[in-house]
Amino acid sequence: MFQFFKRVKTIVGSELNSLLDKAEDPVKMLDQFMRDMAEDIREAESAVAKQIANEKMLKRRLDDATALVEKRQAQAEKAVEAGNDDLARRALEDKKAQEQQVTTMTEAWERAKKDSDQLRVKLDEMKKEYQEMQLKKDSLKARAESARTRTKMNRAMSSIGNDASKQGFQRMEEKVMRFEAEADTSEDLSAASRSLDDEFEDLEKNDVDDELAALKKKMNKEE
Q1: Using CA atoms in the order 73, 78, 81, 83, what is the torsion angle rounded to 10 degrees?
Q2: How many CA atoms lie within 13 A of 186 on its CB side?
């Protein structure tokens, strides 16, 4: 009758941690545990329902036998009043047989009721335990997800700061510096390659500029 408690005891007991240690995915294992527990509870509810139905059936038969005892008593009294002792005797004989039935049915019903009460208590305990495990499962899942996130972040940070990344960054920095040096060198070479004519041409341009400035100054005075 109580075999459906087996998986619940396994999960609630010390085996939970070892099972989680062996599991590749603790979250999936926890979900499976909860499904197993839910199935156990459904089986328990079915067993309790059958036991309660049996208890109610025995109670009805007990009530029927009790009512028949009362009925035969009333019939025997009525037969005595009518002066029919034979009929009264048969009513009392059947009453005695029904009283024995009442005794037997009372014992059976009391046993059934006791079993029903015990099963109800066990079922309530299972449901309470299930709720507690549900909360624990949610907490463990959150912790597992947090641990996974931290692991991913730590791996990402370690990959950013590892030697390969630093060396690669340094190589790119050196390459940019080479580009800058090449650009500076090309400018120097360009300046060195200017001819004397180019320099005199610049000088003449400067003379023209001076002459133009003087002209503007003279014209302003005349105005």
Answers
A1: -100
A2: 6
pLDDT for 2: 45
Q: How far is the CA of 218 from the CAs of 28, 173, 210, 211, 212, in angstroms? A: 97, 57, 13, 11, 10
What are the structural domain ranges in the chain? 3-160, 168-222
| Measured distance CA(223)–CA(103) in Å, rounded | 145
Q: What is the pLDDT of residue 4?
A: 46
71: which residues sit within 8 A by CB, 6+ positions away?
none
Output the pTM of the full model.
0.52
Give Cα separations from 153 to 139, 157, 159, 168, 194 (angstroms): 21, 6, 10, 21, 58
Residue-wise pLDDT tens digits, 6-40: 555 554 454 555 555 555 677 788 888 888 888 98
